[in-house]
Design a protein that fits this description.
By secondary structure, the protein is mainly beta. The chain is built from 4 helices and 12 strands, in the order ββαβββββαβααββββ.
Length: 212
């Protein structure tokens, strides 16, 4: 009989469990929380194109300036936008199930600033491209004549007309997937050489020289 006094245990095995087993190993340390101000600072230096989201109701066209807009897939063409739950244009988008996206030019900085005023009503009827309203065309008109152009902002680089495909609530924002039904190049004003409007670190810019 032995009392196992001289037994040397394999350091890799203790009571039948490997040290690498999750049941034996100490729990991993939780990463420290990200400082909200640091996160916002990081997002501010992620330069992005500026777009205005538009939505038509019976009384007016609402506009809202955002930079959180991106392509999801080209086939079928879909985009994603992110709006705060309290965004002024969100009720109109939910009500109609449609929204427009106008990609702004550099000279449209004043319009972008108008659409970014917190809490203020943002009616942009005065800035729209003048096209025949759909009510004059009728449901039997060809698709190219029935395009939802009444929410297109005059002078924009491009305009997308979208149908709401899906929505997701994430924290205090709503993510909206839009099925793009129309993509129309904007009319450039005579002598306008400005490129797209870009937002970087709380300041608007337009593109400079290419470094390609």
């Amino acid at each position: 009989m032995t009392d196992y006094a001289d037994l040397e245990l394999d350091p890799q095995v203790v009571f039948g469990q490997l040290e690498s087993d999750s049941a034996f190993a100490p729990p991993p340390e939780r990463p420290p929380g990200v400082d909200p101000d640091a996160f916002k600072a990081a997002m501010r230096v992620l330069a992005g194109g500026v777009v205005m989201i538009t939505a038509r109701t019976e009384s007016c066209v609402w506009g809202l300036t955002i930079s959180s807009c991106c392509s999801i897939t080209p086939s079928p063409p879909q985009i994603l936008i992110s709006l705060a739950q309290g965004a002024s244009a969100l009720p109109a988008i939910v009500e109609t199930g449609r929204f427009g996206v106008s990609i702004l030019r550099g000279h449209q900085k004043p319009l972008a600033e108008l659409g970014a005023v917190p809490g203020a009503p943002k009616h942009v009827d005065a800035f729209l491209e003048r096209r025949p309203p759909l009510s004059r065309l009728g449901p039997s008109a060809p698709l190219r004549d029935r395009e939802q152009l009444t929410t297109m902002l005059a002078g924009a680089l491009y305009h997308l007309d979208c149908r709401v495909e899906q929505t997701f609530d994430v924290a205090d924002h709503r993510l909206i997937v839009g099925a793009v039904e129309t993509a129309i190049a904007g009319r450039k004003a005579d002598g306008d050489l400005s490129g797209p409007l870009v937002y970087f670190d709380r300041t608007f810019y337009t593109l400079g020289r290419s470094i390609g």
